[in-house]
Amino acid sequence: GTFQQIAVPEQGKDELAQMGQTFNELMIQLEQNYRKQEKFVSDASHELKTPITVIDSYARLLERRGMDKPELTEEALTAIRNETKRMKEMIEQMLDLARNNEPASYVFEETDLRILVDDAARMITSAYGRAVHVKGPDQLKLSTDGTHLKQLLIILLDNARKYSEQNIDVEVELLNQYVAVRIRDYGKGIPEKDIPFLFDRFYRVGEDRNRKTGGTGLGLAIANEISIGLGTKLDIESEEGKGTVVTIWLQKKPDSQ
Ligand code: ADP
């Protein structure tokens, strides 16, 4: 059911009216969080059921026909292993979502942004052989949680790698109040109508939704949680067929505001 708001007097500016207002706002927030949680549980169950169904039907097929049709074995085992891998990835990402939602897990300290960016870039290059060019100041100190920021960079670089074929650029730009970190790819891009939903859990665009292997639609949801934890803002700009730019806006001095 929907929460019944307390009636607050229209022109009420006294303490009681304000308390009523605060109470209403808090309850609306709680209710929204509860709905989000409920939706997550039902989406997650659905997403996990799909691989289980595939695994189960291949196991049954092997049971029935495996003996007299040994050529089925390879196909069945490949499918079972792919789906198992996908489930494992999904479960790890769900745990990640829960962990990154915890404000207490963020520790801010003076960090050299350039070292983080170079580390993340190197990881993508050595894991996938994809060139990542980093441009910007050689050294840039700011107060942040390096572990989480690196995780955020890796999620965004990994998407750039998955959805493009060319080199990836990372541009670090020092502005007045902010440091902008732009992750730029020259890949397939994202249709404008999908951009508002990219942070939704399990959301995938067009044909990516049907790809048997690969993503889960949780990467950007995790990126968004981390971004909130870090007190940064994420911007996604994209042009279909041209590529995508994701910008992380880091505050230069989060304490001095
Ligand atoms: P996934 O695990 O599917 O990559 P994400 O939450 O990271 O999940 O991304 C959601 C969807 O957004 C992806 O399925 C893909 O369709 C689209 N997407 C994300 N990043 C990019 C990018 N750099 N270029 C093109 N499409 C992207």
Automatic annotation (TrEMBL):
It comes from Sporosarcina aquimarina. Residues 1-35 form the HAMP domain. It is a multi-pass membrane protein. It comes from the Bacteria. The chain holds residues 195 to 451 of 451 of the full protein. The keyword Zinc does not apply. Its main location: membrane. Residues 43-254 form the Histidine kinase domain. Keywords: ATP-binding, Cell membrane, Kinase, Membrane, Nucleotide-binding, Phosphoprotein, Transferase, Transmembrane, Transmembrane helix, Two-component regulatory system. It is found in: Cell membrane. GO terms for molecular function: kinase activity. Its EC number is 2.7.13.3. This is histidine kinase. It catalyses: ATP + protein L-histidine = ADP + protein N-phospho-L-histidine.
